[in-house]
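re: ur question from yesterday

yeah so i grabbed the chain u mentioned. its 150 aa long if i counted rite. heres the sequnce exactly as i have it in my notes:
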Amino acid sequence: MNAASRMDLGVRDAAGAVVVIDVAGFLDASTVARLDETIKKLVAEGRSRILINFAELQYISSSGVGLFMGSLSEIRASNGELKLASMPAKVRKVFDLLGFSELVSIFDSEALALEDFAGPPAEADAEPAFPMQVSCGGCGTGYSAPKVGM
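ran it thru and got these structure tokens back, copy pasting raw so excuse formatting
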């Protein structure tokens, strides 16, 4: 990984017109724009069956989580699907605490996520309502999450 970028991205095609984005390093305010541009470009190209592989992700900030909230809306608006896979335990905990795991499918491995893509498409009517009310699983503090990226 380039020390200056703090994040590496890899984009590759998988079976069933699925695009896998491998994210390594740190997904934070200084790197989130690169991933956002990658996702927007794929969706604009009509490649909206997207799997994010977090196997090499070391850290995610609120900016990174916010990106996925906005991206989920864009991807679903294009009749696509977003799935997340191979999250390190500390990253998965962030998604669980914020309630994001209620909105998107998260898999323990890339292989399991790709199997799920092979099944029937997810329901498009699962668009989250914004602002979304979420609470911290640790302390119970409530938060209002605005729609991001629109």
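noticed a couple things. The chain has one domain: 7-145. also Residues 7-145 form a domain with the Transcription Regulator spoIIAA fold (CATH 3.30.750.24).
anyway ttyl
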